[in-house]
Design brief:
The chain is α/β, with parallel strands linked by helices. It folds into two domains: 111 residues, Rossmann fold (3-Layer(aba) Sandwich), CATH 3.40.50; 112 residues, 3-Layer(aba) Sandwich (Rossmann fold). It is built from twelve helices and seven strands. The strands form two sheets. Strands 5-4-6-7 form a four-stranded parallel beta sheet, with helices on both faces. A three-stranded parallel beta sheet has the order 2-1-3, sandwiched between helices. Strand 6, helix 11 and strand 7 form a beta-alpha-beta unit. Helix 6 packs across helix 12. It starts with a strand and ends with a helix.
């Protein structure tokens, strides 16, 4: 019997892609139109951003734990969070959560290691790129990480919050992203982590200069496997 999956969401577009992936890919393993039971809860992105901008990760953890408590009460048996940035509060959440969580960066790094990648380009919000989420996970597998230069980090952050989380996907932004990935390829990176859950909606893996590691879909696939384990 498949276990009930909880999704603690943060931003709508990334959470929706994660949910759609979970429901559309599970039938390959479970049969036509079938997927594990799944429930979602999210506080407004604005509530998260107040604390993220202030660097108040305990307050971010409190929001995540609030979602966890509500999901646990309606029967979820473990939780995924399709938002990379707020995983900076993950250790605080793990210490108090009523039910287990999968860690998005751990799932991405597991895939990177399986594919033999050794030097990952990390893209996402400015908070993620400057933070410890991916370096900590990658270090455990002996994988190096690099991030864009400061001006490019700011530009990506602006694209994410002014465009992607609002469902806006511009060709100009897609071209900029590909140019940025080429710079990171020239610095020795062998794959790029799409470490904002909306970035897979912007990046075109067919023309991206590096192989992509889609954090949103990798997390959804890990949740399917965990549910059926």
């Amino acid at each position: 019997m498949a276990r009930h999956v909880g999704i603690a969401a943060c931003s709508a577009e990334g959470a929706a892609l994660c949910y759609r992936t979970f429901c559309s890919e599970a039938p390959v393993l479970m049969g036509r139109h079938r997927h594990p039971e799944v429930s979602m809860h999210t506080h407004p992105l604005a509530d998260y951003m107040v604390h993220i901008r202030a660097g108040d990760w305990p307050a971010v953890a409190d929001l995540m734990l609030s979602s966890a408590g509500k999901l646990a009460k309606i029967g979820a048996e473990f939780i995924i969070c399709p938002d990379n940035t707020i995983h900076q509060a993950f250790d605080l959440v793990a210490a108090k959560t009523p039910i287990p969580w999968l860690h998005i960066a751990d799932e991405v790094v597991r895939e990177a290691a399986a594919l033999g990648y050794k030097n990952l380009a990390i893209t996402g919000t400015k908070y993620l790129m400057a933070g410890p989420v991916y370096p900590r996970s990658a270090e455990k597998s002996g994988i190096a990480c690099q991030v864009p230069d400061e001006p490019d980090r700011q530009r990506i952050n602006t694209i994410i919050f002014d465009e992607l989380v609002n469902g806006i996907f511009r060709d100009e932004s897609r071209i900029f992203f590909n140019h940025l990935i080429q710079k990171l390829k020239d610095r020795g990176c062998d794959a790029v982590v799409l470490g904002c859950t909306e970035l897979p909606l912007l990046a075109d893996s067919a023309v991206c200069p590096l192989p992509t590691l889609d954090s949103t879909r990798l997390l959804a696939r890990a949740a399917i496997k965990e549910s059926l384990r």
